[in-house]
């Protein structure tokens, strides 16, 4: 019976060999736990309680939530297949909730490290490239935009007089961001230098090389190299987006305003930064308060 199901996965659903093997291993594990034969011929008699007991046993043995989810999904798919073949009336795994996987908090660069980097003058063997790379860093940190959004900015999206930047976000959703005075000056200086050095179509891409708009991989490499001096584990454009949001919330910004600046479609996406900010506050308490080391006790 189990072999028929695995053939169905591979031949009819076109699942990968790795997926088929993983499902087979998980279901044989369940069969062994229930003391049934390896081809699971007695599967139609399995109850929800038995599947729950198997998963609970795996959890007690230290299996990760991610692995528990995979095992639950394997059981759901197998018994759903039995149900479609009318070998069972009800899928006993259908009502079993998937184990929750905790969201990893986003990585960010500490505010002082960012300010030190941005206050330093652009440097490098080529002054044009050095100025452009410094602007990349400043835009990502000061505006919290995504890498793809940065690539799409052209001169037509920039209004230096009103200090506004138009961003083409996901699903072509437009949002307008304010530009701080120092960034306005930096953009103006870069445009002057860029136009003197490069011949580009109009409206010109803001961030570019001599050949035109830059690729996402090129932007990633630039940011990664610029962040090597920081303590951040992940050194990417998205790390600067996390840094932008964390800095705003730590300094008292209202969460709905941060949501709009980031271009999130729901508040849920923004709320992870409130957890991150609280961790920062708790760390500061532990470091500075006389009883900070006892913060989690009592």
Description of the molecule:
- This protein has 298 residues and is mostly helical.
- 55% of the residues lie in helices and 5% in strands.
- It is built from twelve helices and five strands.
- It has a three-stranded antiparallel beta sheet. It has a two-stranded antiparallel ribbon with strand order 4-5.
- Helix 2 packs across helix 4 and helix 6 packs across helix 10.
- The radius of gyration is 27 Å and the shape is elongated.
- List unreliable stretches of 5+ residues: 294-298
Rg over CA atoms: 27 Å
Secondary-structure element string: HHHHHHHEEEHEEHHHH
Q: How much strand content do the residues show?
A: 5-15%
Major sheet characteristics: 3 strands, antiparallel
Record field, number of beta strands? 5
User: What share of the residues lie within helices?
Assistant: 55-70%
Quick description:
By secondary structure, the chain is mainly alpha-helical. The protein is built from twelve helices and five strands.
């Amino acid at each position: 019976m189990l072999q028929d199901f695995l053939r169905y996965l591979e031949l009819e659903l076109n699942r990968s060999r790795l997926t088929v093997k993983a499902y087979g291993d998980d279901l044989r594990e369940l069969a062994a736990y229930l003391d049934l034969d390896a081809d699971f011929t007695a599967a139609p008699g399995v109850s929800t309680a038995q599947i729950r007991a198997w998963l609970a046993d795996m959890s007690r043995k230290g299996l990760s939530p991610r692995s528990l989810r995979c095992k639950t999904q394997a059981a759901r798919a197998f018994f759903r297949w039995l149900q479609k073949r009318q070998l069972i009336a009800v899928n006993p795994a259908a009502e079993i909730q998937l184990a929750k996987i905790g969201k990893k908090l986003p990585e960010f660069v500490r505010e002082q490290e960012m300010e030190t980097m941005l206050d330093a003058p652009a440097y490098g063997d080529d002054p044009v490239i050095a100025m452009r790379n410094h602007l990349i860093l400043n835009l990502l940190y000061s505006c919290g935009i995504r890498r793809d959004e940065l690539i799409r900015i052209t001169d037509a999206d920039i209004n230096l007089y009103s200090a506004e930047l138009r961003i083409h976000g996901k699903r072509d959703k437009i949002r307008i961001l304010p530009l701080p005075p120092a960034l306005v000056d930096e953009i103006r200086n870069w445009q002057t230098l860029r136009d003197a050095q490069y011949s580009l179509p109009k409206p010109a891409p803001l961030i570019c090389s001599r050949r035109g708009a830059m690729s996402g991989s090129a932007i990633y490499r630039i940011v990664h190299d610029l962040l090597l001096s920081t303590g951040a584990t992940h050194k990417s454009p998205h790390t600067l987006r996390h840094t932008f949001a964390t800095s705003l919330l730590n300094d008292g910004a209202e969460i709905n305003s941060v949501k709009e600046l980031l271009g999130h479609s729901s508040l849920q996406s923004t709320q992870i930064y409130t957890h991150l900010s609280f961790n920062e506050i708790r760390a500061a308490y532990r470091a500075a308060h006389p009883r900070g080391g006892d913060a989690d006790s009592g």
